[in-house]
Design a protein that fits this description.
Oligomer: single chain
Low-confidence stretches: 425-435
Shape: elongated
Helix content: 40-55%
Radius of gyration: 44 Å
Largest sheet: 5 strands, antiparallel
Distance between the termini: 111 Å
Structural class: alpha+beta
Number of strands: 22
Length: about 600
C-alpha cells in the first residue's frame, strides 16, 4: 500500500503510527513524525482556520469524513490530497483515536485545472465572438448555451432562449416544411450540415445566415447534442445586391450611351458639312449655332453619365504629371466663357503673381473639375451676376475656389450637394436643366487626386462657393511639347461600314470633301466582301452590325494577308475601358467613340503620312 499514506492519530490528533506509503508521500520518516501533531501536514492558512481540529471533530461526530485539499510535505512542497478520516472507538464506545488514509491526487488535480482553464479560455473565446452566434442544442434541438454573438445577432438574452427549441429562429414557411427537424437529421446522417438561408430575430426581422451544425457524441458514440455556428451575412448580401445593381446600372448606362451616340454621329457630321459652306442668312447661322450648342450639351451629358459609372467602378485611369494650377485655372476659365457670356456674367480671375502652384494630376480631369464648377456657377446665378475663380497656396495644399452671387443653398442642400442626381430647387419648367451628376463627378475626381472639395453658402439667394483642395508638390510643372507641324492631308482609300445609313453617308461626304476616296457598306457581310475587293488603307468600322459584327470583321481582316496594311478603326457608341480592351484584343488599331470629332479622324490620317 505504498501509494497510500496510512497512519493513526490519538484522540488529540498526534501521530502514533506511520506506514511506508506515508514516508514516500510526505518525506517524513517514522522517527521524525511519530508524536507530532497532524497539523504539521497542513498549509499555514489551513492551520490558521483550525482545519485539522475541525476535521477531527467532524469525523468524531459522524464517524467518518472524506475531503480533498492541499497538504504539505517535509520539504515544504504542496500536494493535493484525498483524505479519509475514520474515528476509532473501544468496546464501550469511548473514542480511542483516528485512522487517516491519504492519497496524492496532484496529477489529477493538475489535469482537472488544466481542463478547467482550457474550457474557460474556450468559453471566453466563444463569448467574445460578436460576429458569430455560437450555441449548443440538446438532442431534441433545445438551446443549452448562448454566446454574446448569438445575443447580438438574434436579440435574445441567454435567459430568454435557453430551453427553447431552435425552430424559433426559422420563418413560418420553413417551420411548415419541418426544416429544423430535417436539418438535425441531415447533420446526424452526414456528420455536418451547412447552408445559407433566412433566419428570424427576436423582433421578427429577417436576416440572411450561413449556418453550420455539427452533432456531438460521447466516447461510446451516444448523441449528446449539436453545436451550431451562425454567421450573419446580411451586410454581405446587401453589398452583393448593391454591386449587382451597380453592375446593371453600368451596363444600362453603357447601352444608353451607345443608343444616344448613334443618332448624334450623323447629326455631328452633318453639322461639319454645313460648316464647309457660308450660312445663307442670319437665321441659318442661328440655327447652326443652336444645333452645335445642343449636340455639345447632349454629348457632355452622355460623357458625364459614363464618367460616374467609370469612377464608381474605379475604371478611370489618371495620366498624372506635375501641373501648374494657375495654368489650369486660366484654361478652365477660357473654356467656360461661352457659359459666362451667354448669361451676361462678369468673370474675375485671382492668381498669385509670383508664386508657383504645382499639383500632381491628370490635366484633362482637373480641367473637367473646374469646368463643372464654373458651369454650375454660371447656370445657378441670375443673368448679369458675378463669378470668380481664384487659386492660392495654403500650407501643403493648393486651394482653388469658384464663387458666385447666385441662388445659394440652404443647409439641407449643402449637406447633400455632392450626392448623385441631387439638384437644388428648380421651378417646374427646370430652367437650369441638367441631371444632377456634375458635383458628384467633381467630388469623385478630386478624391482620385487625393484631394477634397467643400461647398459653402450663407443661405438661399446669397451665393455659393466651392473650394477644391489638392496636395501641393515641390517640382516644376511638366513643359508642354511643341505641337508638330501638320502635314497636308494625303488622299486615302477609306471604307466605312455602318448600319446607320445617315451616319455612314454623312461621314462619307465629309471624307470626300477632304479629298479621300470613300466606299460605304451597311452590313457586315457585304462590308467584308467590299473590303477584300477594295483593299482600303483605312477601314472605319461600327461594332454592332447586322449579319456579321465588327469584331468578326476585324478578325477576318487581320487573318487576310491581302489586307495586312489596312488600318482598323472602331467607330462605336461603346466607349468604356473594357470595350476598348476588347477592340484592341481582336486587332483594331484605333477606337473612336461616337460622335467622332472629324478633326480626330483628320489627325489619324495625317499620322500615317
Amino acid at each position: 500500500m505504498q501509494d497510500y499514506a496510512i497512519y493513526l492519530l490519538d484522540r488529540s490528533g498526534h501521530i502514533v503510527s506511520w506506514n511506508r506509503g506515508a514516508e514516500k508521500l510526505t518525506g517524513y520518516t517514522t522517527a521524525e513524525i511519530v508524536g507530532r501533531h497532524v497539523s504539521v501536514l497542513y498549509p499555514s492558512d489551513a492551520i490558521e482556520r483550525r482545519s485539522p481540529e475541525r476535521e477531527l471533530k467532524m469525523a468524531q461526530e459522524s464517524g467518518r469524513l472524506e475531503d480533498e485539499g492541499w497538504r504539505v510535505r517535509k520539504d515544504g512542497s504542496r500536494f493535493w490530497a484525498n483524505v479519509v478520516i475514520t474515528s476509532l472507538h473501544d468496546e464501550s464506545g469511548a473514542l480511542r483515536g483516528f485512522s487517516k488514509i491519504t492519497r496524492d491526487l496532484t496529477e489529477r488535480r493538475y489535469q482537472e485545472e488544466t481542463l478547467r482553464q482550457s474550457e474557460e479560455r474556450f468559453r471566453v473565446l466563444v463569448d467574445g465572438l460578436k460576429d458569430h452566434a455560437i450555441f449548443m442544442l440538446d438532442t431534441d434541438g433545445r438551446v443549452t448555451s448562448w454566446n454574446s454573438g448569438a445575443q447580438r445577432i438574434t436579440g435574445y438574452q441567454a435567459e430568454e432562449i435557453e430551453g427553447r427549441h431552435f425552430g424559433v429562429f426559422y420563418p413560418q414557411a420553413a417551420l411548415d416544411k419541418r426544416l429544423p427537424e430535417q436539418e438535425l437529421a441531415m447533420a446526424r446522417e452526414h456528420g455536418r450540415f451547412e447552408n445559407e438561408s433566412a433566419r428570424l430575430r427576436k423582433d421578427g426581422t429577417t436576416f440572411w445566415a450561413n449556418v453550420v451544425m455539427s452533432p456531438l457524441y460521447d466516447q461510446e458514440g451516444v448523441l449528446m447534442g449539436y453545436a451550431n455556428v451562425i454567421h450573419d451575412l446580411t451586410d454581405r448580401k446587401r453589398a452583393e445586391s448593391l454591386e449587382q445593381a451597380e453592375r446593371h446600372a453600368s451596363e444600362f448606362l453603357a447601352m444608353l450611351a451607345h443608343e444616344l451616340r448613334n443618332p448624334l454621329a450623323p447629326i455631328n457630321n452633318a453639322l461639319h458639312l454645313l460648316e464647309l459652306k457660308a450660312p445663307a442668312d442670319a437665321t441659318e447661322k442661328w440655327v447652326r449655332d443652336v444645333l452645335h450648342r445642343q449636340t455639345g450639351q447632349i454629348t457632355r451629358l452622355i460623357d458625364d453619365l459614363l464618367d460616374v459609372s467609370r469612377i464608381t467602378r474605379a475604371a478611370i485611369p489618371l495620366n498624372r504629371r506635375a501641373l501648374d494650377a494657375c495654368a489650369l485655372v486660366r484654361t478652365a476659365a477660357e473654356g467656360s466663357m461661352q457659359w459666362i457670356q451667354a448669361r451676361g456674367h462678369e468673370l474675375s480671375i485671382e492668381l498669385p503673381p509670383n508664386e508657383a502652384l504645382t499639383v500632381l494630376g491628370d490635366e484633362a480631369r482637373l480641367t473637367q473639375v473646374l469646368h463643372k464648377l464654373l458651369h454650375n456657377a454660371a447656370r445657378y446665378t441670375p443673368e448679369g451676376g458675378r463669378v470668380s475663380i481664384a487659386a492660392r497656396r495654403e500650407n501643403d495644399e493648393v486651394v482653388i475656389c469658384v464663387k458666385d452671387n447666385g441662388v445659394g443653398m440652404d443647409a439641407g442642400l449643402l449637406h447633400s450637394a455632392f450626392d448623385l442626381f441631387k439638384q437644388g430647387q428648380q421651378a417646374a419648367q427646370r430652367p437650369q436643366g441638367g441631371l444632377g451628376i456634375g458635383l458628384t463627378l467633381v467630388q469623385r475626381l478630386v478624391r482620385l487626386h487625393g484631394g477634397t472639395v467643400e461647398a459653402h453658402s450663407a443661405g438661399p439667394d446669397r451665393g455659393s462657393e466651392f473650394s477644391v483642395r489638392l496636395p501641393a508638390v515641390n517640382e516644376a510643372p511638366a513643359s508642354e511639347a511643341a505641337a508638330p507641324e501638320r502635314p497636308g492631308s494625303t488622299p486615302r482609300k477609306v471604307l466605312v461600314i455602318d448600319d446607320n445609313s445617315d451616319a455612314a453617308n454623312a461621314l462619307r461626304m465629309l471624307l470626300e470633301n477632304d479629298g479621300h476616296n470613300v466606299r460605304v457598306a451597311h452590313d457586315g457581310v457585304s462590308g467584308l466582301a467590299l473590303a477584300r475587293e477594295y483593299r482600303p488603307e483605312y477601314l472605319l468600322l461600327d461594332i454592332g452590325l447586322p449579319r456579321l459584327n465588327g469584331y468578326d470583321i476585324a478578325a477576318s481582316v487581320r487573318g487576310d494577308p491581302e489586307l495586312r496594311h489596312t488600318t482598323l478603326v472602331a467607330i462605336t457608341g461603346y466607349g468604356q475601358v473594357h470595350d476598348r480592351a476588347r477592340t484592341a484584343a481582336v486587332g483594331f488599331d484605333h477606337h473612336l467613340t461616337k460622335p467622332v470629332e472629324f478633326s480626330a479622324l483628320q489627325e489619324l490620317f495625317r499620322a500615317k503620312a
